[in-house]
Write a structure and sequence with these properties.
Length: 291
């Protein structure tokens, strides 16, 4: 009987959040170790399905850097990075499309649809969802040509709005296209932020391999549970963030500036991380919000 009562208490704790988020859109960036662990992928899929059944409109964005690297090595292609950015020549671009659109995207869709909910896979090329331009990296040695690496110039959210209206769950691979039909590989963190802004999402959530943002990376007790916009901007300017965290927090800040209500950075390797952050009083990770 006590176990039943505890389950009832959990449901009652979640009730105000279910009411608050009903009908709202949340963009979830799925990445890190959670993408490479079958058990974590299955739990992620079940969390997304539950979110949809209680009235939220989840939109998933994913990359797949480790998977791209694995397949490039299988094909004896050179794997090269500049300051953490993949140099993407024509051959690497073909592998990126094959892996992101043809493999990773379909796996996520299949996991979600295994629960009886209809997910739809697409990339930024579909319906010109993500129009982009070539990105140049400016490092210590000046401007570096990264090849077919792009940045989002414009989002055409109509196709996503139609899918959401019809109660589908969009799963978006981080491939974009320019006005001439050339495909580009885009940082999935930046894609998630751009989609959240275009959809005027209520929430933007990054699933990562760490618990959130730390004031001091060497101190596990320095996790920041909540950040106002101005404090987040100061962190970006301070230069203390890791290269992996920088685009996530930058995307959070830009999304908040442009109307997204909350942005979250949480550890996707924790069981049911999404549900803990969304539907419990304590939450997990770091939340960024307007001042």
């Amino acid at each position: 009987m006590e176990k039943a009562r505890e389950k009832a208490r959990v449901l009652m704790e979640a009730l105000p959040y279910i009411k608050d988020y009903y009908g709202k859109t949340v963009v979830v960036k799925f990445g890190g170790n959670a993408m490479e662990n079958d058990e974590l992928k299955e739990r992620f899929a079940s969390d997304i399905v539950l979110m949809r059944y209680v009235g939220m409109n989840p939109v998933i964005v994913h990359g797949g850097g480790p998977q791209i690297t694995e397949y490039m090595r299988r094909l004896s292609l050179e794997v090269r990075f500049v300051d953490g950015h993949r140099v993407t020549d024509a051959a690497a671009m073909e592998v990126a499309k094959m892996v992101l659109v043809g493999k990773v995207n379909k796996e996520i869709v299949s996991l979600i649809n295994g629960h009886g909910t209809l997910a739809v896979g697409l990339s930024g090329e579909d319906g010109n969802l993500l129009m982009c331009r070539k990105r140049f990296h400016r490092g210590e040695e000046g401007e570096v040509d990264l090849g077919f690496v792009g940045e989002v110039e414009r989002v055409n959210p109509g196709i996503l709005n139609n899918l959401i209206r019809d109660e589908f769950i969009p799963v978006v691979a981080s491939i974009g296209v320019d006005g001439k039909g050339q495909s580009y590989n885009i940082n999935a963190d930046l894609v998630a932020g751009a989609l959240a802004q275009a959809l005027q999402a209520d929430k933007l959530i990054y699933l990562t391999d760490v618990d959130g943002i730390y004031r001091d990376l060497s101190d596990p007790d320095s996790l920041i549970p909540e950040l106002g916009l101005r404090e987040a901007e100061k962190l970006l300017e301070g230069g203390s963030l890791s290269s992996g965290m920088l685009p996530k927090l930058k995307s959070c800040v830009e999304a908040i500036r442009l109307g997204v209500r909350r942005a979250h950075i949480i550890n996707g390797t924790i069981d049911h991380a999404l549900l803990l952050e969304l539907y419990t009083d304590a939450g997990i990770g770091t939340m960024v919000k307007a001042d």
